[in-house]
Design a protein that fits this description.
Elements lengths: L5 E2 L11 H6 L4 E6 L6 E8 L5 E8 L9 E2 L20 E4 L2 E5 L6 E5 L8 E3 L6 E8 L5 E8 L8 E8 L18 E4 L4 E7 L5 E7 L10 E9 L5 E11 L9 E6 L5 E5 L6 E5 L5 E3 L21 E3 L6 E8 L2 E8 L5 E4 L6 E9 L5 E9 L2 E9 L4 E4 L6 H4 L8 E8 L10 E9 L6 E2 L8 E5 L13 H7 L4 E6 L8 H4 L9 H15 L8 E6 L1 H12 L6 E5 L5 H7 L7 H5 L7 H7 L12 E6 L8 H13 L3 E6 L9 H19 L22
Helix pairs in contact: 5-6
Length: 703
C-alpha cells in the first residue's frame, strides 16, 4: 500500500483534474500546413474554448520551439477560421508564398491575407455571398487563383449543391474606394456529383485531381477519383476542365473508398483506397494503370473516415523519388515510415509514445534538413504539433503542454486495449455467430486514494459518435476526469468502428441500434464478469450517434445499465431521416434502410418509441444551434421520460452547435454529468458542484 493513501468510496476521490482544468485543456491544434513556397514556415489552427471556441490561425518557423517567430494571424475576435461545409467543416484555409486564404465562420466568406506584410488585414474575396460556403482550399503556384469546394445554399439547405470552383485572387490594385475587393465570379470547374473533395494540383503542370461521390453513399462507402487539366485563360484563371477522366472507383465497378489524392514532384498521383478491404496506399503509374504502393496489401488502415476536410496521413517526400510518408496501426501499435512505392520498401520512423498521428506535411529547417510536420499524441500526452527530423529520427514539440504526464503524475489512467466476445446479428437466433469486438479500458487511478476492499468501481461505458468513427487511446482529459475520481471507463470500438477494415466497418450496415448496442453491453458485462467493475453500477454515455447508442442501450437492454447520459444524441431515427443536413441525409439508408420504405424499422429502433421498456434515469445535454441533431430530439425524449416518472435531467446551451466549444459550457456539462451520476449510483462527489434539477426525483418530491 502506498504511503498516505486514503481509502474512500469509488467516485468520491478528490482529483486535481477538475472540470475547469478539462475545459482549459480542451484547446486543440488541427490542420497543420507547410507553405510549400517557403517550406521553413508552418501554419496551424488552434481552438480556444475561453474565446467561445474560436478557431485561430497561427504560424511560426518549423525549427523554432519557442515563441520567437510565432505569429497570430487572426488575432481579432471577429475572425474564426472555420467553415460550415458538410456542417463538420475542416480544410478551412490554405497558404502559398505567404498568401493565406481562409473561410470565416460568421459569414462563411472567403478571406485573403498577405502574411508577408505584418500589418495586413484579411479582406473578403470571391462572390461574397453569405449563402455560399467554401472549404478544402489549394492555392495555385501562380498565386492568381485558389481551387476549393463550394457548397451553395441559395436555394436549399438539404439540397445544397456542391461544386469545385476556382476563385480569382485579386491584386491590391483592384481595391475599391471602400478599401475592399469587389465581388468576383467563381469559375465552376466540376459540379457533376452530390459531393466533391480534396482538390490537388500537380507541381509539374495544371493537372488537377479530386474525388467525388453521390447519395446514398458516404465517402467511406464509395468515391470516384478524377483527374483533369485546368485550361487557363489570358488572365491566368481556369474556366473549364479538359480531359476529365476517372482514375479509380468508376461507378458500377469495384466499390472503393478513395482518399487523399497527392501529386509528388514528378507528377505521379498517389492516393489511399480500401479496394483490398483496408485503406492502403496506391499510385497511378506512367502506364495509366493503378499500382499497389505496398508489395502486398496490409490488413491495416492507413487513413480514417473523412468526416471533415483536410485529413493528411499520406504525403509525398520532396527529393526522394517515388517516396511517401505513411502511417498505420497494426496489432494495436502505431507505425510510421517512408514508403518507396517502386521498391515497396518501408523505412521505419519511430513513433515516440504516439498512438495517433495526422496533418502530415513536409518542410525544411533553416539548416536545410528535411522535416516532417505532424500533429501527434499518445496515452499520456494530448495531440500536439511536432517537427520530426527524418534523418535524425527525433521529434520536437511546438504546441500543447510538454508535461501533462508530469503535472498529473499518479493521476493518469493508461488505456489497456481489450478484445471481448460478442455476437453478430440476427441476435437471439441460432444463426447468430460469435465474434470479437474491441475497446480501451481505463482503470481508476489516483495516487492519493484506493477503494474499500469490499467495493468494486462503477463503470462508465463510452459509445463514440459517428457512428463510422473510432475511439482513440490518445490522452483525453475528459476520461481522466472520471478515472481520477475512482470511476472506471471503457471506450468501445463497437462493430461499425473504423481502424479494423471495411468488413468490420460494415458490421453496422444495416444494424445501427443493434450491433453497437450489443457490443457496448457486451463490453460492460465482460468487465463486470472479469471482476473489474461493479455489475450493479454500470453507466453509459455518448454524443451524437453515440448518444443514440446510449439511449438505445437504456431502452432495449434495460437490464444492463443503471444510468446514462446523452450529449446531443438522437432519440428518434425517423426525425433524423427527415430533418438532418445534406451530408448525412441518406446515411440512414445504410445504417437502417431506405426511408420511408423501412419506416417500421426506424420506429422499432428509436428509443423514443420504446420508453415503455426504459427504466433507467438519463441526463440530456444539447446545443440549441445544432444543425446535425435537432434540439427537439432531446426535448421529445425528456418529455417522454417525465411522463413515465423516470428521473431525468435536461440542460440546453445557448450558442452551441454539435458539440460544446465554450469553456463555461464544457465545465457545466461535465459537472452536471458527474452530479447526476452520483445521485443515481449513490456516491458523494469531492467536488463542489451546482446541483442539477432532476425531474421525478423522489428526494425532492415533497419539497
Amino acid at each position: 500500500m502506498a504511503i498516505n493513501t486514503n481509502t474512500a468510496p469509488y467516485g468520491s476521490w478528490k482529483s486535481p483534474i477538475t472540470a475547469n482544468a478539462v475545459a482549459s485543456g480542451s484547446s486543440s491544434v488541427d490542420m497543420a500546413r507547410v507553405d510549400q513556397a517557403n517550406p521553413t514556415r508552418v501554419y496551424w489552427i488552434e481552438s480556444r474554448p475561453q474565446e467561445g471556441g474560436r478557431l485561430v490561425l497561427l504560424s511560426k518557423d518549423v525549427d523554432d520551439y519557442s515563441e520567437r517567430t510565432l505569429r497570430e494571424l487572426t488575432a481579432d475576435s471577429k475572425w474564426n477560421v472555420r467553415t460550415a461545409v458538410h456542417e463538420y467543416g475542416g480544410g478551412a484555409y490554405a497558404v502559398y508564398g505567404g498568401l493565406v486564404v481562409f473561410s470565416n465562420w460568421s459569414d462563411q466568406g472567403v478571406y485573403l491575407v498577405d502574411t508577408n506584410k505584418h500589418d495586413a488585414v484579411p479582406m473578403r474575396i470571391g462572390e461574397q455571398n453569405d449563402k455560399l460556403r467554401y472549404a478544402s482550399f489549394v492555392v495555385h503556384p501562380s498565386k492568381k487563383f485558389v481551387v476549393c469546394v463550394r457548397e451553395d445554399h441559395q436555394e436549399s439547405d438539404i439540397q445544397a449543391s456542391a461544386a469545385l470552383v476556382a476563385i480569382p485572387i485579386p491584386s491590391g490594385s483592384v481595391i475599391n474606394e471602400r478599401d475592399e475587393y469587389p465581388p468576383s465570379k467563381d469559375m465552376v470547374l466540376f459540379d457533376k456529383a452530390d459531393f466533391v473533395s480534396s482538390p490537388a494540383i500537380s507541381p509539374m503542370n495544371n493537372e488537377l485531381s479530386f474525388y467525388a461521390w453521390n447519395h446514398p453513399d458516404m465517402n467511406w462507402d464509395a468515391t470516384t477519383l478524377y483527374c483533369a487539366t485546368m485550361t487557363l485563360g489570358d488572365d491566368g484563371i481556369p474556366s473549364v476542365l479538359e480531359h476529365l477522366r476517372v482514375v479509380a472507383g468508376a461507378p458500377g465497378e469495384l466499390r472503393e473508398s478513395i482518399y487523399q489524392p497527392r501529386f509528388d514532384d514528378d507528377g505521379i498521383l498517389h492516393f489511399i483506397s480500401d479496394r483490398s478491404g483496408f485503406w492502403n496506399p496506391y499510385y497511378l503509374g506512367a502506364d495509366g494503370e493503378i499500382h499497389q504502393s505496398l508489395e502486398s496489401p496490409l490488413s491495416a488502415d492507413f487513413a480514417g473516415p473523412e468526416w471533415a476536410f483536410g485529413e493528411s496521413t499520406l504525403q509525398p517526400v520532396s527529393g526522394l523519388k517515388f517516396s511517401v510518408v505513411i502511417s498505420y496501426t497494426q496489432n494495436g501499435v502505431l507505425k510510421m515510415g517512408i514508403l518507396n512505392v517502386a521498391t515497396h520498401a518501408i523505412e521505419d520512423l519511430p513513433a515516440p509514445g504516439w498512438s495517433d498521428v495526422g496533418s502530415f506535411q513536409l518542410g525544411y529547417s533553416h539548416s536545410g534538413e528535411q522535416v516532417l510536420i505532424l500533429i501527434a499524441g499518445g496515452p499520456t500526452e494530448r495531440m500536439s504539433l511536432f517537427t520530426y527530423y527524418i534523418n535524425g529520427l527525433s521529434a520536437k514539440q511546438h504546441t500543447g503542454s510538454k508535461s501533462v504526464s508530469d503535472a498529473y503524475s499518479g493521476f493518469l489512467s493508461e488505456p489497456q486495449e481489450i478484445v471481448f466476445p460478442t455476437k453478430l446479428p440476427p441476435f437471439g437466433s441460432p444463426e447468430s455467430k460469435d465474434a470479437n469486438a474491441y475497446a480501451y479500458y481505463y482503470p481508476p487511478t489516483n495516487k492519493d486514494y484506493q477503494g474499500p476492499d469490499n467495493e468494486l468501481p462503477p463503470l462508465l461505458v463510452l459509445s463514440h459518435g459517428g457512428p463510422t468513427s473510432a475511439a482513440s487511446s490518445v490522452l483525453q482529459s475528459k476520461i481522466q476526469y472520471w478515472t481520477s475520481r475512482g470511476i472506471a471507463v471503457t471506450d468501445v470500438n463497437y462493430g461499425g468502428s473504423t481502424g479494423y477494415g471495411r468488413e468490420y466497418r460494415e458490421r453496422l450496415y444495416p444494424h445501427f441500434g443493434e450491433v453497437d448496442v450489443q457490443d457496448c453491453c457486451a463490453a460492460a458485462l465482460y468487465l463486470a464478469d472479469s471482476g473489474l467493475v461493479d455489475r450493479k453500477r454500470l453507466s453509459i454515455m455518448g454524443g451524437s450517434a453515440g448518444g443514440f447508442t446510449t439511449l438505445a442501450c437504456l431502452a432495449f437492454r434495460p437490464e444492463v445499465f443503471a444510468v446514462g447520459a446523452s450529449l446531443y444524441g438522437i432519440s428518434d431515427l425517423e426525425v433524423l431521416a427527415k430533418e438532418t443536413h445534406k451530408f448525412e441525409a441518406e446515411y440512414p439508408v445504410h445504417l437502417v434502410g431506405p426511408y420511408p420504405e423501412a419506416r417500421a424499422e426506424y420506429i422499432r429502433r428509436s428509443p423514443l418509441y420504446s420508453v415503455d421498456t426504459l427504466a433507467c434515469p438519463a441526463i440530456f445535454l444539447q446545443g440549441l444551434e445544432d444543425k446535425v441533431v435537432p434540439p427537439n430530439q432531446a426535448t421529445l425524449m425528456v418529455n417522454a421520460l417525465k411522463e413515465k416518472g423516470i428521473r431525468v435531467a435536461h440542460i440546453e446551451f445557448e450558442g452551441e452547435q454539435h458539440g460544446f466549444r465554450k469553456s463555461e459550457n464544457i465545465v457545466r456539462a461535465l459537472e452536471a454529468q458527474l452530479y447526476f451520476f452520483s445521485q443515481i449510483l449513490g456516491f458523494e462527489t469531492a467536488d463542489q458542484i451546482d446541483p442539477v434539477p432532476i425531474f421525478n426525483d423522489p428526494s425532492t418530491a415533497n419539497q
